[in-house]
């Protein structure tokens, strides 16, 4: 049975997208059908990605553009400025023929076979995911519980890897619920769509073993058999990665593994502009620069709700 995977991406994560899918293909025992929700990817980008995924395990490759108006009213943060991950709300509507999928962030090393996760029983749940590292390390987080109004924050999951039961997603109109919740509680959700997903799917998510979404900071050895999540605002395709992650583990294990997969894609010559080191400074400045909704949100939190600062309803 083919495994349907879904990702969302803009041009900022092209190398990560190429590596995430290529690594999944190389470790699969089943055919993978790849569905990408695109936000501004050019035709030339799509062509390079298709060639990058030229592998015997690759089935169909589909790109669907999502309008920026569907994402513009969501919150961005200093840590996560891109809003493309919110596109996962709409997977069931964008791909109406899919009954189930595995959703992957575009910053993963998929070094295990996705077939097992795709075929697993969800025991009546709507999704499956792995507890977030903040909960795995602390065991509880009262501030998270209060902020999100959760009954039990111990099951808070990371949304970078999810098995999604899309028939239930559509039947219960979860896309509409997630959109409304994200707008109504704009100031409460710091981890973008992940917070909203945890609220809506509380007690309806099967929790999986850590190997399905282990974090690079946990320094897994060996990497094989894991999905390694390259969380952080600085990624291996950024100029600053080696400077930020200066421990030998990140250079000798994570960076080398990432670049070895990248070398088997059409992005093998990825070389960001860095004349006189100015590219690294540009990355740093772009990261520091606030977005418009970050500024408006800060004003609202400082002065109470300002009547003229509102967010329109959005959806497909």
Structure commentary:
This protein has 316 residues and is α/β, with parallel strands linked by helices. It has one domain: Spore Coat Polysaccharide Biosynthesis Protein SpsA, Chain A. It is built from 13 helices and 10 strands. The strands form 2 sheets. Strands 3-2-1-4-7-6-8 form a 7-stranded mixed sheet. Helix 2 (43-52) links the parallel strand 2 and strand 3.
Q: Key features?
A:
35% helix, disordered C terminus, seven-stranded mixed beta sheet, three-stranded mixed beta sheet, Spore Coat Polysaccharide Biosynthesis Protein SpsA, Chain A, alpha/beta, 10 strands, 16% strand, globular, 316 residues
Percent of residues in beta strands? Answer: 15-25%
Spell the H/E element sequence: EHEHEHEEHEHHEHHHEEEHHHH
* Main sheet: strand order: 3-2-1-4-7-6-8
Q: What separation lies between the terminal Cα atoms?
A: 30 Å
What portion of residues is helical? 25-40%
Q: In total, how many domains does the architecture comprise? A: 1
As residue ranges, the low-confidence spans are 307-315
Mean pLDDT: 89
Q: Based on DSSP secondary structure assignment, what is the total number of beta strands?
A: 10
The radius of gyration over CA amounts to 19 Å
CATH third-tier fold name? Spore Coat Polysaccharide Biosynthesis Protein SpsA, Chain A
Q: What's the quick description here?
A:
With 316 residues, the protein is α/β, with parallel strands linked by helices. The chain has helices spanning 14-26, 43-52, 91-94, 115-119, 133-138, 142-148, 166-171, 174-184, 193-200, 241-244, 248-262, 278-288, 292-303; strands spanning 3-9, 32-38, 58-65, 100-104, 108-110, 127-131, 157-165, 205-207, 214-215, 227-229.
């Amino acid at each position: 049975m083919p495994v349907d995977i879904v990702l969302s991406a803009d041009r900022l994560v092209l190398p990560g997208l190429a590596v995430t899918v290529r690594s999944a293909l190389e470790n699969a025992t089943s055919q993978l059908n790849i569905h990408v929700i695109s936000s501004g990817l050019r035709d030339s980008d799509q062509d390079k990605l298709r060639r990058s995924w030229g592998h015997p395990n690759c089935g169909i490759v589909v790109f669907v553009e999502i309008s920026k108006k569907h994402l513009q009213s969501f919150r961005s943060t200093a840590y996560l400025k891109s809003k493309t991950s919110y596109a996962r709300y709409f997977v069931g509507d964008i791909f109406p023929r899919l009954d189930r999928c595995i959703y992957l962030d575009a910053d993963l090393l998929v070094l295990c076979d996705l077939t097992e996760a795709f075929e697993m029983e969800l025991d009546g749940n709507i999704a499956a995911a792995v507890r977030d590292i903040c909960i795995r390390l602390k065991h509880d987080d009262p501030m998270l519980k209060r902020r999100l109004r959760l009954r039990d924050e111990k099951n808070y999951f990371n949304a970078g890897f999810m098995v999604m039961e899309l028939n239930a997603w559509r039947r219960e109109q979860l896309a509409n619920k997630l959109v409304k919740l994200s707008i109504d509680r704009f100031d409460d959700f710091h981890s973008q769509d992940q917070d909203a997903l945890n609220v809506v799917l509380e007690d309806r998510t099967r929790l999986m073993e850590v190997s399905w979404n282990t974090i690079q900071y946990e320094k897994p050895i060996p990497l094989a058999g894991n999905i390694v999540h390259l969380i952080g605002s600085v990624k291996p395709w950024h100029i600053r990665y080696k400077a930020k992650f200066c421990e030998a583990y990140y250079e000798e294990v994570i960076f080398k593994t990432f670049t070895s997969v990248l070398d088997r894609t059409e992005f093998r010559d990825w070389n960001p502009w860095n004349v006189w080191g100015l590219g690294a400074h540009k990355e740093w400045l772009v990261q520091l620069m606030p977005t418009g909704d970050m500024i408006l949100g800060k004003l609202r939190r400082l002065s109470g709700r300002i009547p003229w600062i509102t967010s329109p309803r959005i959806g497909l």
